[in-house]
Give the backbone structure.
Amino acid sequence: MNILIAQSGGPTSVINMSLYGAVRKAFAEKQIKHIYGSVNGIEGVLNDRLILLEKKLVEIEKASNQPGSILGGSRYSLQEGDLEKIINKMETFNIKVFYYIGGNGSARTVKALHHCAKHQGKELRFIHIPKTIDNDLYGTDHTPGYPSAANFLSHAVQWIGTDMESMKTYGQIEIIEAMGGNTGWLASASAIAKSSEEQYPQLVYLPEEKKSLSQILKEVESSYQKYGKLMMIIPDHFFIQGILSEASANTTRAGYNGGVAYQLAAQIINNLGYKTKITIPGTLYRSAYSFTSKQDLKEARILGETAVEQAMKGISGVMMCIKRLSNKPYDVEIITKDLENIAGKEKAFPKEFWDKEKHMPTNKYKTYLLPLLEYSFLKPLTLLEK
Amino acid sequence: MNILIAQSGGPTSVINMSLYGAVRKAFAEKQIKHIYGSVNGIEGVLNDRLILLEKKLVEIEKASNQPGSILGGSRYSLQEGDLEKIINKMETFNIKVFYYIGGNGSARTVKALHHCAKHQGKELRFIHIPKTIDNDLYGTDHTPGYPSAANFLSHAVQWIGTDMESMKTYGQIEIIEAMGGNTGWLASASAIAKSSEEQYPQLVYLPEEKKSLSQILKEVESSYQKYGKLMMIIPDHFFIQGILSEASANTTRAGYNGGVAYQLAAQIINNLGYKTKITIPGTLYRSAYSFTSKQDLKEARILGETAVEQAMKGISGVMMCIKRLSNKPYDVEIITKDLENIAGKEKAFPKEFWDKEKHMPTNKYKTYLLPLLEYSFLKPLTLLEK
């Protein structure tokens, strides 16, 4: 039989490692003859852009620990008739399994393809291999790509903190814009190296919260008064009643990040009169090569490998999931979950991970996240004093 | 005798190394009894915040390779009578030499103090130790801090490039905002890893250029058509006739970065209809610890050490300068230059380093910059094809 693999959505730092794991495993499987790859997700399937990956092993291995999607990402939405076309194409190429590496969008696609093939009475298999820096998929303890993005942010916050501490007497507010879709998983990672209340950041907001501008300005004012400086983390999908409906709409419509941080900075400057700077790391969250977590790379690879094994046993319509067995020592097992009830659902940042009063994640969240990072944090800068 | 050291302006990744070099050298000098440090530049001198640095050797050594200013930065402007007050304070503490680590502002302060003391017939010495990520000081081949900031940007551009390449079929424009004050030294570093025209970034703008909005939109349109994607580097002090006077004014007035990138993105979206994202690394340019260049650290230290040696020989009113002797192998010597004609003057990005037609720095600039970086660049991502 032949198999097909594709990548979907925006890239991560480890998405190529899942591809590499799957391709290596498939290459060693006697039952598998050809390993097809599709360029730009299901678009490549629909537009005849399939390539033989067994001929590209060297390139895939070289890219395996590098950010970006070596097969190209896709944001294509399924049109009527597409499912049937994809299934026909698979039959033409004698492809029995389709592995789709992606987030919530591709989970829905895999589920739909599985149903369609089943309905037609066809013996095809469809497996979803998760990836997203947003960490917003149900069924898995966490998603490959998230640990590396969290690792980058937690370091960036510490670096920017040394700068703010140096310029403390010139009191300023720094707004750092976090990615993470509609959930606060990534924004929360900004606080992972904090060991005292004064340390940066002092205010973290989640997209799950709805806030009015006056509420936020009050919180900014009181934090600033308390600490004499203020680093705040604002998700790019943060809705602020009043001012930010338009900016948020822009964000979605035109792929326009920066709206929330910029507009909030303008409001702080105009209403409170504080110097306010913005930092927008943008796609650095998913491409900051030097911050790829080793644990993340390892798990991305194992998920790819296990996906091939599982499909060889005949299963279909599932997502490859990480199940955490223990925090200390960190231990996981890879399981499969039926996509039926989880595909496409966003997993919000859990209530027990969030301290609403302090605008900070809880220690429970730290226990969850720390094993996934490269914990090489900077000693916070302490100015010399008399 | 006693001496005094202080740090000024925004921090860099290596400003503490210059301090460390000077303090170590002074500690070993028999003529020197006490090494005073001032907290927050000349403000600390004016407000009695002097500390004995010989008691802080361990802390200074620990911070020596870390970003931030361990003595605190300063953006204080000299008021009438301040020069005399500083000189009085130096006499009170029997301080014979004042070393000021900083950019153009502190160069002017050092020159003014030197003149004032000379005018009063006092045997005091004043030495300027350069630091700025802007690289805009006359007299020195380059300034400590610049290589590390350039190193960070050149890597960030490559990372963001892998993301753009992965999403190429979803054509987008990415605007990266560069620091660098009124000169294009830092923005130009974004192109240092480029080996072909298509590689990222495709358009670099310098603050030395004045452009109208319609000119820029024309250049964006034609680059986008040519490459099917576009990464452009825009300095945060970039003046665009028409739209950006207000944003630029804000930048200066309120310490408000992000204005230029945000406003230009809005113009591109509204006028050309392309998806446009912005990345604002902000103070990461001067704090991205993992990108501190070893050459930069080394030179920052030597400048601090040599400054102590020179002052012991009796010189005053000078800047410590790097003079390049050769590119291959890279070799420099440390010299002093009289601040008389160079203090406070901005060194624009040289014409021979800039290709106006291509919106790119020339190979001459690459020859200049490369020896200062950690040249560990990523292989650009190439999507797999049939």
User: Anything to note?
Assistant: Chain B has 13 helices and 15 strands.
